Amino acid sequence: MAAAKDAIKNRERLLASVILVSLICGWVAGLFKHHSDIAGFLKQALPGAVRFDSSEDNIYTGLTHAQSESKKAGFVAVRSAHGYAGPVTVAVGLDANGKIVNAVIVRHTELPAFFRRVTDNGFPGRFKGKDCSDQFEIGGDVDSVTGATVSLAALAEAVRVACSDIATGRLGLLPIVKNKPAIQFGLPEILLILLIVTGFAAYGKKLPANTYMKWVVLAASLVFIGFVLKRPISLININSLLVGYWPRWQNNVYWYLLLAVLLLPVILRGKTPYCSNICPFGATQEILIKLGGSRRQLPEKCSQFFKVLQRSLAWIAVMCALVFRNPAIITYEVSATFFTIIGQNWQFVLLALVLILSLFIARPWCNCLCPVRAVSDYVRLLRRGFTR
Amino acid sequence: METEEDRPRRELRVTRRTLIKAAGAASAVLGLSGLGLCGYQAGKDPDSYTGCEGLQGAAQSFDRKRFAVDEPHYEKVGPTRRADGRTEVIFSRVDVARSAAQMGKRIEDLDEPFRGYYEQHPEDFELDKQNSELRRKVAEDSPENRNRYILAEAWADAMGAVSPRPIGNEPPEISDFPGQMSRSPFKMKSPAATAKLIKKVSYEFGTVLIGITKLNHDWVYKYPSSRRGFAMNEPIKVPKHWEYAIVVGTPMSWDPMYANPNYGTSNDAYSKSRIVAFRLVSFIKRLGYAARPHTPGNSYDLMVPPIMVDAGLGEQGRHSIVITPELGCNFRPAVVTTNLPMSTDKPIAFGVQDFCKNCKICAEQCPSGAISKADKEVIRGYKRYRLHSSKCFNFWNSNHGSTGCRVCIAACPYTRKSNWVHKTALQVTANDPTGISDKLLAGMQKRFYPGPKPSDFYAATLGGKNASYREPPWWLKTEDFIEL
Amino acid sequence: MGFFESSFFWFIEGLFACLAIIALRTWTQDKGIRMPFWKWPVVIVWVLFLAISIAYIGTSIGEGEMDAAFFGAIFAAVIASISGVVVWRLLRMR
Description:
The complex is a heterotrimer of chains A (388), B (484) and C (94). Chain A has helices at 2-31, 39-45, 112-120, 149-169, 187-201, 208-228, 235-243, 253-269, 273-278, 280-292, 300-324, 335-340, 345-357, 364-368, 371-386; strands at residues 51-53, 59-63, 72-82, 87-94, 100-107. Chain A is an alpha+beta fold. In chain A, a hairpin with a 4-residue loop joins strand 3 (72-82) and strand 4 (87-94). In chain A, helix 5 packs parallel to helix 8 (253-269), helix 8 (253-269) packs across helix 15 (371-386) and helix 11 (300-324) packs across helix 15. In chain B, the strands form three sheets. A four-stranded antiparallel beta sheet of chain B has the order 1-2-6-3. In chain B, strands 4-5 form a two-stranded antiparallel sheet. Classes of the chains: A alpha+beta (388), B alpha+beta (484), C mainly alpha (94). Chains B and C meet through loops of B and helix 2 and helix 3 of C.
């Protein structure tokens, strides 16, 4: 018996190591991905300039003639800010009076269906003519875009940073004070902490009080994390972490809290209350199976197949994210589609399938396809393999 | 023998049988009288007027009385000002900017009133100057792209081929009156009967919707946009006989309209509405009263949308076009001003103001960004949404097909054909006081009826894809009929 | 006027509806499902929802609005399945 257990443990260790090595290889391979030339973007940002002088602080001076004695047409700064799935990078051209001549997106890794909302609403072209001393506040001097607030906020922040860098570094203006508080901590963060605390409390022994509490937390999370904030954990968040796109914590307390409640308990104790007690899409499936009145699990063979599929797909998605340095390069999660009603057509079909199946089988998404579950499984495997 | 137990059961059976018999008799009576009503309807059905189905006024089907209000939705705030037809109408000012661009003139080189206008709106000067350049760039597009619109352009031209003679350059005190065919005005029996008569004959002349109002002088241009008997640089003194305004109009053909900005045309409805207005003018003059047409293609002396609102035809939307309950904004109006005494219609409120506040689909779909996403502003003393006409007109010169764009008309959720789905949606928004349905239906519109990216509407040489809002109808697809 | 907008079509629809209701009654009796009065409107509302959804998909295809038909079908399938399961459990309630 002991020998068999050892054999299993050895095999697990081997598997964990192989995956770990593959991930490291993928990460290293991603280092060699070089970004496209930005010269073209500079020209678009400041069409009046013929030539650009670069300097150490990454602000380019646009000159009107090819000769050295030519006049300054303006300045271009290339800056980025953290969006939903990595940095959004823009090139912003300012004229000598500090007015935005043009702003162009150099690159981004946001989800196409969501970012289309931003570009469909005329961004970043709508920043044209704005003054470098503006606040670039969504809902203030920048119109908001429903369904893509995070992406637009990143875009506006990148434009603001570019403007303020040129204003202070080249135009000799005083730094622009942003009205925002230093640390973003408001109602969403407080509610999230409340949910996490109660979710933890209800986790563990199957007491009647715990079951009751679990349902309250699930319902609250469905409404709040799901339909109001529309920001459950996605593989994209984990990919961002792995790829190294760590947003400023001061503006992203919510983001870090959510990831911490998923990953820390798995690392420390080998299990997490997120999936069973907090995840809003899990809550959706729990409610549906209650409505359906069934307690069926998938047959053993089927569930074996889907476990392999679930983990392989997740591995492929993470590997691609690492190699291409794009957290959202492969996405097949339907929870975002469910809460935002935005997505590709096939995602709607998959979502409908999952919802209908949820009436008859316990948590089909969690057990068959959810990549976040696969990640937490893998962390558990690592932990088992390397602790005694 | 009856037992004690049987009695109640039998009673029960009897009552049930009686019930069934009564129900049967009632349904027979109802069914038969229903047939009578059905027969009456069949005899009266507008569809039985073969070839003239559209002239029976049946399309004006919305119950306006139920949604009538005393005050129109635009709010009067502070002192009002009449629009300047020479500068505030894009078509009047744009040629000045165009020639300024050719001759390298600056704003300070222009004559009044254009100098004053452009000094106040320097952005408009820059935009208006670009039009020739944009047109030139569109013409550089590949023959393959340009030739796709041969049939659409031929159709648009054909639709505009028939037009009444312009009203000439006599002052309105002469040109509006019957003249040689004159007799003293007939005494009409009652304003209500006259209104009924004018509406009926207008339907027979081909109008689809009609409304009558007293003319508010704030809607008459301060300075004319074209001569028509006025001196260009003298303020219009509103003639006393412009007492009433009759608004008539027709929709554009639905399938090409959805295939805007390149396959549709305004000419079809313009032409029809123009003919209705000129027929109406002739009719009123024969009764001995004064009448003057203000029609698309033959110029106006006044702004039409607020008059439509006053006449109860609809409410003005975010895109500045009046939304009618029957046709949405697929409606091209013409106005007849007259002194024929008629009873007037009341403005209506059927939920458009609340809907437009939230929906913004037209602003999101507009390729030029001319439609404001902001709240209402005070313009010439009235609260309304701002429309940036210079931006709008720039796009008219940035695509193929017939002149204009009309994407906002096609994209507006109210501009839908008359089937049970859209009729139901209209009734829901019109009757729901909570505003929940506005949000829900606008959300469903965006999800269920998406349009192309606004930048795709531009010609390929201007970075677009020559997109149209919907596929063109089969009969406008040039490539299926002409060897290219 | 085509057949599907004619009065005759609605007459036949009425016949079909009557037959369906009679069949439902017989079927529930055979299955031993009790049908108190409140179950009838529940079933009828569910069937009406299904009917309107199918009509909506048809109308959208007829209008040439394929996106509307697609999303209508997806939304209707999910809502009809979930409410269908609930209705079915209500039917089997004693």
